């Protein structure tokens, strides 16, 4: 039998890439918090309520904070 189930992924608000745990072979999780936690373990971050992959954010030394990269830097 095949059954349709609802799953969750953490998707980068910068580039649209969905997080995948390549070491364990996971691309979706049963709970929203598990999806976010797994992504954060691989250096994803949340800035102003949005999720960003490591390619889409940078450290700003002037403000001592992480910020999304501008579109021309991505």
Quick overview:
With 74 residues, this protein is an alpha+beta fold. It has one helix at 32-41; strands at residues 45-47, 50-52, 57-60, 65-68. The protein starts with 31 loop residues before the first helix and ends in a 6-residue tail after the last strand.
Question: What does the model show?
Answer:
- This protein is an alpha+beta fold and 74 residues long.
- Helices cover 14% and strands 19% of the residues.
- The chain has 1 helix and 4 strands, in the order H-E-E-E-E.
- It has one helix at 32-41, and strands spanning 45-47, 50-52, 57-60, 65-68.
- The strands form 2 sheets. The chain has a two-stranded antiparallel sheet with strand order 1-2. Strands 3-4 form a two-stranded antiparallel ribbon.
- A hairpin with a 4-residue loop joins strand 3 (57-60) and strand 4 (65-68).
- The radius of gyration is 14 Å and the shape is elongated.
